[in-house]
Amino acid sequence: MWNMKQLEYGALARRANQIKKELRQGVRRPYKEVIDVFQGDLHRAGMKPLTFVRQVLAACVYPPLINSSNLPLDVRQRAQEELGRCVGGSVGSYSAAPGIPEIIHSISEFIKRRDGGIPSHPENIYISPGSQWSISNILNVLVNREASPRTGVLIPVPCHNKTVLSITQLGAVAVPYYLSEEQGWALQVEELQRAHESAKGVCNPVALYVINPGNPAGYVQSQKSVLEVIRFAWEKRLFLLVDELYQDCVYGENCEFVSYKRALSEMGPPFSGTVELASFHSVSKGFSGECGLRAGYVELVNLDPAVMKHIHTLFSKDACSPVLGQIALNLMTDPPKPGDPSYLLYKQEIEQIRTVLVHSVKKVHEVVNSLPGFSCPPIEGGLFAFPRLHLTPKAIQKAKELGLQPDTFYCTRLLEEGGVFTGPGWEYGQKEGTYHIRYNTSRALFKVHH
Amino acid sequence: MWNMKQLEYGALARRANQIKKELRQGVRRPYKEVIDVFQGDLHRAGMKPLTFVRQVLAACVYPPLINSSNLPLDVRQRAQEELGRCVGGSVGSYSAAPGIPEIIHSISEFIKRRDGGIPSHPENIYISPGSQWSISNILNVLVNREASPRTGVLIPVPCHNKTVLSITQLGAVAVPYYLSEEQGWALQVEELQRAHESAKGVCNPVALYVINPGNPAGYVQSQKSVLEVIRFAWEKRLFLLVDELYQDCVYGENCEFVSYKRALSEMGPPFSGTVELASFHSVSKGFSGECGLRAGYVELVNLDPAVMKHIHTLFSKDACSPVLGQIALNLMTDPPKPGDPSYLLYKQEIEQIRTVLVHSVKKVHEVVNSLPGFSCPPIEGGLFAFPRLHLTPKAIQKAKELGLQPDTFYCTRLLEEGGVFTGPGWEYGQKEGTYHIRYNTSRALFKVHH
Ligand SMILES: Cc1ncc(COP(=O)(O)O)c(C=O)c1O
Ligand SMILES: Cc1ncc(COP(=O)(O)O)c(C=O)c1O
Fold it and tell me: What does the alpha-carbon distance between residue B382 and residue B218 come to, in Å, rounded to a whole number?
């Protein structure tokens, strides 16, 4: 029998894998399959990759395909173009450390279009093997390990947990600011103030980490909220780390993604020229969902040239990012255009993914709120639901007896009895005395659609 | 006119790019093309990628190719198998952080075969986005930034310069041990002793970095030499970091690659159970030459479980390595077998690359030694020549007047006047008063062969 006491961080995943294995070996359980809604991977959830992206990448990998009449003409031309940018015409050569220059240029053009014409400078953009890697590296630059008091970084609660891990591993202090669940997980400046005050005597806050749209809570910040945060960062001289990976995943009515870069620029002086900003994006999220290719980028704004030099060295020291991931980034930021042979299919696939995601989010929200003991504010963006569990005192007591966090106890039962693999709220942070679970909203519906 | 005084680290590369651009724009020079022998990239040097590797990767990227009768059957089967190991059947999903379990298992089998049956344990193997990344990460674990005196790492001179960069960036001290140029760049234990002694009062040496076969100097260590180094590491309680990326690139007569793992195992107690070892390998070097895919692995031996836990966390914090790189690692360590449809072509391509490399090395050695002012011991392995420049006092004087290192001055002239782009020896380290240049031995000949 599975000993519940053994459960800790990561143990749920191991247990889920064990159950999957047992099911394959014919062990009988009340379900035939484990539904894995723990991860945010779209391909894991059953989404098909975008045809255009995969065709171009395949032709780059195996250039004889460029001559194949089975592939659309624009795919073949694009592959040729991408290979022309690779040293020696091969995706097997190292590129320049910050990324292939033409691709960095194309990313800057994408940012400019997205931000209504506000310029973006290629020399401020670095490609990395996944955005998590650049988040870690920028944190590395911001954190002074020898400082006393220690360096502090303000983080939202709940928060994407890999970033919290990076902060604590660097010896810095993660200072929590709580998002307001009652207000649909809104980010409130008074709470930022409180968090900043709370750091006094504990650490020296130098940066503010924001996730917009959110993970695990599915909020989308309004323009007003973005402006407030920037003003706060300016007042307190905080470096803004903005994780904008889910910028394409916005579903809420009256919701719109507003980039920090644009908002900052439009604020004008003194803000626009002083607030230091790092904005992260990636091929992992949005509609390409190519987590396994490992490519993200960071755009840096208003950084001191000396710091930029240091960042350049850090981003160069392990050579370059995977070249195929870089090409995927280019395809994401410079997709087929109307009139191109691949355009219609591309558009159709994107629309279908969007439809599934919007539909999933609605459905999940409905179902969750109809269950006794659950509540969940509207999910406006991102890929996750983070509903609250209203556990009975008896369930909490039982969990404590087992030496478990109450939400871990709940997730374990959901896995053991229902075959559904979710994440317990404490892994992402939550207000004391509240309990949540996190799960990927898209999984169930992709499975139905294919 | 190009101002020679502006030259510093990286400036030669910028100048080479500028000249390339000018040549494209029609500027006349005594040469039509810049010959770039600075980098160690085989694809950049004109080597064609291995067909089998690229076909399998293409079919993994774009699975409809699995049904294409244009690809050999084993390629299609292999692609299917590799995709079966990917979560959700897509190279676009995250894998487990240390790597895809079946691929790690297959790497351990490869190591076992290579080492005459000595077991290799999958839980000691981690895949990373290039081996440079794991070298940096293991160094990160070994270096105590707060220690006084500072942490020391013994490094060969000349040395692969990215590793030196990592050491100094971590705040550690790189303690040089000089390879004996007179003895074909042999690694001598007396010199290790001297280097270790020299650290007294400066830093606390905790690790010894060895590159075998060498880069930039093309030596291959004998078994005797490997055993001596292990014994020295044991005596001084040094962690052995062994960079074995060029294990397939051995050309010298009577030369054989001996892995540190095997030598250590065969030494028996007390060595075999105590000396801590990290051995690095990569898809970048050897015959696949897939630098741009970014995949390497490290095998760890005799590490304390607490340290292994820490390493696990470090290797997990930025999610996984590029999945296509992982698959390429698997193809490198588990290539087509006799009887497989792709076997003959694969073998033929490998043989051809080997022939070109062996031929290049001989040629380069001959030519270099026939030039006045140059000398170079036999090149036994690796991808580089590191000949010595016997500069005249006048040339040295002239360089000094320009504020340049004498070898930089030479490389600059070689680039400006001859169109050949090489690296100055001081970037890799050299005995004071000696001057060298580094260059990739393979480039000229691949160009001729295609
Ligand atoms: C908010 C957030 N930031 C960063 C990442 C890292 O993504 P990647 O490293 O794949 O680009 C993720 C991945 O799930 C995420 O959800
Ligand atoms: C000796 C040595 N070690 C490590 C590396 C890093 O290789 P990669 O990170 O591509 O695996 C190189 C690359 O040139 C090298 O020459």
Answer: 5
